[in-house]
Design brief:
The protein is of the alpha/beta class and 309 residues long. It folds into 2 domains: 231 residues, Malonyl-Coenzyme A Acyl Carrier Protein, domain 2, CATH 3.40.366; 61 residues, Alpha-Beta Plaits. It is globular, with a radius of gyration of 19 Å.
Length: 309
């Protein structure tokens, strides 16, 4: 059985994630402390105490990476290892770390910087995003091409695409898409035009930090957001993470790549069931197990070991 570890993107974070792991496992406490040092913030406070910072991009990103990689270690320590990994946008950092190419500390450090750059490169209020439900991507692309600096951001699954760009352009494009027959167009509550060419300067500045991070040989391959291709060579990772900031996320295509790779089971690691929903609409023949709590981890470990025996 081929197993893929997959990781969600920003938006699924919540106060209290991995609290049960920290209550039970000393390694989880150690990782939270390591994350605090790497990111230069109080990660335990961010994760476990009521606060508004958990939803601020600069803090959301390292917090979610910390949570997902704590859960990953719990699975790996129990002998559950992936054959391939993938992550949605921010989740690509978890995928690369889980694949063995990036240290936990660097994943946390880089995602705080990434979050800051993504938020600050375009002035607040100047950029936006909208989810489009019920229109084919080629139809969407044809319509938004007439709006200045509005482009595709995410190909999530059949029937769900996200557009990004200048705020006024996204709002106008949203109306045009509704008129063209979209079942629903929802302007998203985000701090910028993520995965837009407008964020190319953020990717260029992030590259300076990526160059400081050690990239090791991959122990297993991962699927890159911007190409939906299987990556086995560490030499392309920095380039891929640089362009990922301003390129569309090819998630539907990535799930199809996982199917071609022969994945039988996807373990969605982290809060929420976003990836499970996309899998159901894209490659429903692949089973998904969600793991965000100790109880879910124990159930997943038991189930996978039973299947493999």
């Amino acid at each position: 059985m081929k197993i893929a570890f997959m990781y969600p993107g920003q938006g699924v974070q919540k106060i209290g994630m991995i609290k049960d792991f920290c209550d039970k496992e000393s390694f989880a406490v150690d990782m939270v402390n390591e994350a605090s040092e790497a990111a230069g913030l109080d990660m335990a406070m961010l994760l476990f105490e009521e606060n508004d910072d958990i939803n601020v991009t600069e803090f959301t990103q390292p917090a979610l990476v910390t949570a997902c990689l704590v859960i990953t270690k719990a699975l790996c320590d129990a002998g559950i290892k992936p054959d391939i990994t993938a992550g949605l946008s921010l989740g690509e950092y978890c995928a690369i770390s889980a694949a063995g190419a990036m240290s936990f500390a660097d994943a946390v450090r880089l995602t705080r910087i990434r979050g800051r750059l993504m938020s600050n490169t375009v002035p607040a209020g100047c950029g936006g995003m909208a989810a489009v439900i019920g229109l084919e991507p080629d139809v969407i692309e044809g319509i938004i091409s007439s709006f200045e600096e509005v482009t595709m951001a995410n190909f999530n699954c059949p029937g769900q695409t996200v557009i990004t760009g200048k705020a006024e352009g996204v709002a106008a494009a949203a109306e045009a898409l509704k008129e063209a027959g979209a079942r629903k167009v929802v302007v998203l509550n985000v701090s910028g035009p993520f995965h837009s060419p407008m964020l190319k300067p953020a990717g260029d500045m992030l590259r300076e930090e990526l160059d400081k991070a050690e990239i090791a040989d991959l122990k297993v391959p991962y699927i890159a957001n911007s190409t939906a291709a299987v990556v086995s060579d560490k030499d392309s990772i920095r380039d891929l993470l640089q362009v990922q900031v301003s390129s569309p996320v090819l998630w539907e295509q990535s799930l199809r790549t996982a199917k071609k790779f022969g994945v039988d089971l996807i373990v969605e690691i982290g809060p929420g069931k976003t990836i499970a929903g996309f899998v159901k609409k894209t490659v429903p023949e692949i089973e998904v197990i969600n793991v965000s709590t100790v109880e879910e981890a124990e159930a997943a470990i038991k189930k996978i070991k039973e299947i493999n025996s």
